[in-house]
C-alpha cells in the first residue's frame, strides 16, 4: 500500500499529547504537520462529531476547533457534553462548538437530531458570519460564502462538511430483546445518522467512520430468503468480542458502499442522479445536479490504534480499572488516537481519493471481507430494511421508526 503520510513528526499538541508516552511511540507514527493535514485550516467548516464528550471524540472535537471549525458535539449525555464543551471553550481555540443530544441506540433520537440540524443549517449566511461553508465548498476549500457590501441578507443553505461517526461501545450486554447492542450503536445508529445527513452534504464533504483493526477478525453473515436475497444480519455470536469485531467490520463495509454510491467519480451516483434527478443521498434538491456536485463525498474508515480511553468501562468497572495498569504503556493517548481521524477529516491529500481504510494516517488494505462489494451492498440494503427505511433516499424525519 502506498503510504499517504510518512514523515514522523510531533504528536498533536493537545493536553494529553504533552504526556505522550515513549512506549506508545514504539507503535505510533504520528503524522506530520503542514501539507499532510494537521495544519489544514478548517475555518468555517461545519463538523459533526458523535461521542465527543470524552475519549477519542473529545480530542477530535478539540483538533477541529483548533483548526477553526464549528463542531457539533453530538452526544447522549448532555451534562458530560456541556462540561467537555466548557473545557474546550476555555482553551481559546479559534473554532466554536455546540452541544446536541443524540442517542445512537434510539432511531427517534437520531431523527430528531437530524431534524434539528436541518433547521440549524438553514440559516442565513449573514447571521452566521463566516461560519457558513456555502455550497460546494468542501473540506480544504475557502469556506465562507459571505455577503458583499450592500447585499441583502439571504437564505443560503449550509452543508455538513465533516461527519465523524466516532461514538461506539465495546463489551456491552445485549439489549432486553437479546439484540446485539454493538451492532445497534456501532453500525445501525451511525448508518441511519449518515443516511439522513447525506442530503445535507455536498461535494467535498467527508464522512469518517471510526473503525478498528479488529475488523480483520470480524465476520458477518446475512440471512437470505429462499431467493438468495439477504434479509437480516445473523446474530451468530453472543460473545461481546466477536460482536464488537463484527460491528467494526460493518463500519468498513458501510464506508465501502458509501464510496461506491456517493464517492469520488462514483458511476453508481451518476446513474442514480440521472435516473431520479433528486432524492438520492447527496443529490437531493432539484437545483443540485451531479455536475454541480462535481464528484461526490469522501468516505474513509480509520483505525485509531489501541487507545487509553474509557471504552473498557463496561467490562471493567471503575474499581477494577487498575488491572489495566500493566497494559497502559502500550496504549496511545486519546490525542494520538484522534490524529488519524483529524487527518482523514482535513487532509488535502485525501481530496478526490476513495481511500477506504487508514491506520497511522496511511492507507492500509482492509480485510478480504471488508473488500467484498456484494457483502457491502447487501449490508446496506439489510441495514435499511432493519431501520424501516428505503434503500435509497429519504427526506429526513419521514422514516417509519
Ligand atoms: N479505544 C480504543 O482502543 C479504540 C480502538 C479502535 C477503535 N476505537 C473506536 O473509537 C471510537 C471511540 O471510542 P473511545 O475509545 O473514545 O471510547 P469512549 O471513551 O468510551 O467514548 C465513546 C463515546 O461514544 C459515546 N456513545 C456510546 N454509546 C452511545 C450512544 N448510544 N449514543 C451516543 N453516543 C454514544 C460515549 O458516550 P457516553 O460517555 O455517554 O458513554 C462516548 O462519548 C469507538 O467507535 C471505538 O470503537 C477505539
From TrEMBL:
User: What ranges does the record give for the region Disordered, renumbered to this chain?
Assistant: 1-22, 125-151
Q: Which UniProt keywords apply?
A: Oxidoreductase
Q: Which PANTHER family match?
A: NAD(P)-BINDING ROSSMANN-FOLD SUPERFAMILY PROTEIN, RETINOL DEHYDROGENASE
Protein name as annotated:
Uncharacterized protein
Q: Has UniProt tagged this entry with the keyword Phosphoprotein?
A: no
Q: Where is the composition biased (Gly residues)?
A: 131-149
Upper lineage is: Eukaryota, Viridiplantae, Chlorophyta, core chlorophytes, Chlorophyceae
Spell out the family assignment given in the record's similarity comment.
Belongs to the short-chain dehydrogenases/reductases (SDR) family.
Q: Name one GO molecular function term.
A: oxidoreductase activity
Listed InterPro entries: NAD(P)-bd_dom_sf, SDR_fam
Amino acid at each position: 500500500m502506498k503510504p499517504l503520510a510518512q514523515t514522523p513528526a510531533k504528536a498533536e499538541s493537545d493536553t494529553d499529547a504533552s504526556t505522550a508516552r515513549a512506549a506508545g511511540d514504539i507503535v505510533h507514527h504520528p503524522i506530520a504537520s503542514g501539507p499532510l493535514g494537521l495544519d489544514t485550516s478548517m475555518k468555517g467548516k461545519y463538523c459533526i462529531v458523535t461521542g465527543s464528550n470524552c475519549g477519542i471524540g473529545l480530542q477530535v472535537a478539540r483538533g477541529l476547533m483548533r483548526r477553526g471549525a464549528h463542531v457539533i458535539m453530538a452526544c447522549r449525555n448532555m451534562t458530560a457534553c456541556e462540561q467537555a464543551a466548557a473545557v474546550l471553550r476555555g482553551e481559546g481555540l479559534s473554532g466554536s462548538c455546540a452541544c446536541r443530544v443524540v442517542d445512537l441506540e434510539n432511531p427517534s433520537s437520531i431523527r430528531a437530531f437530524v431534524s434539528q440540524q436541518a433547521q440549524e443549517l438553514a440559516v442565513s449566511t449573514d447571521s452566521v458570519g463566516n461560519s457558513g461553508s456555502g455550497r460546494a465548498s468542501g473540506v480544504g476549500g475557502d469556506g465562507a460564502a459571505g455577503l458583499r457590501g450592500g447585499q441583502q441578507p439571504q437564505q443560503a443553505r449550509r452543508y455538513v462538511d465533516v461527519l465523524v461517526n466516532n461514538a461506539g461501545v465495546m463489551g456491552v450486554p445485549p439489549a432486553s430483546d437479546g439484540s446485539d447492542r454493538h451492532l445497534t450503536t456501532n453500525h445501525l445508529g451511525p448508518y441511519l445518522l449518515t443516511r439522513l445527513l447525506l442530503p445535507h452534504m455536498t461535494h467535498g464533504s467527508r464522512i469518517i467512520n471510526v473503525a478498528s483493526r479488529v475488523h480483520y477478525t470480524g465476520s458477518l453473515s446475512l440471512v437470505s430468503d429462499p431467493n438468495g436475497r439477504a434479509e437480516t444480519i445473523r446474530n451468530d455470536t453472543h460473545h461481546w468480542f466477536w460482536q464488537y469485531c463484527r460491528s467494526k467490520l460493518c463500519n468498513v463495509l458501510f464506508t465501502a458502499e458509501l464510496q461506491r454510491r456517493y464517492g469520488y467519480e462514483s458511476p453508481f451516483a451518476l446513474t442514480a442522479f440521472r435516473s431520479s434527478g433528486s432524492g438520492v443521498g447527496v443529490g437531493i434538491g432539484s437545483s443540485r445536479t451531479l455536475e454541480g456536485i462535481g464528484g461526490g463525498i469522501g468516505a474513509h474508515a480509520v483505525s485509531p490504534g489501541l487507545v487509553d480511553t474509557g471504552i473498557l468501562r463496561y467490562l471493567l468497572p471503575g474499581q477494577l480499572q487498575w488491572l489495566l495498569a500493566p497494559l497502559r504503556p502500550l496504549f496511545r493517548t486519546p490525542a494520538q488516537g484522534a490524529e488519524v481521524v483529524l487527518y482523514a477529516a482535513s487532509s488535502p491529500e485525501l481530496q478526490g481519493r476513495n481511500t477506504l481504510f487508514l491506520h497511522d494516517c496511511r492507507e492500509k488494505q482492509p480485510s478480504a471481507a471488508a473488500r467484498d462489494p456484494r457483502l457491502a451492498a447487501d449490508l446496506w440494503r439489510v441495514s435499511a430494511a432493519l431501520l424501516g427505511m428505503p434503500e435509497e433516499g429519504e427526506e429526513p424525519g419521514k422514516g417509519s421508526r
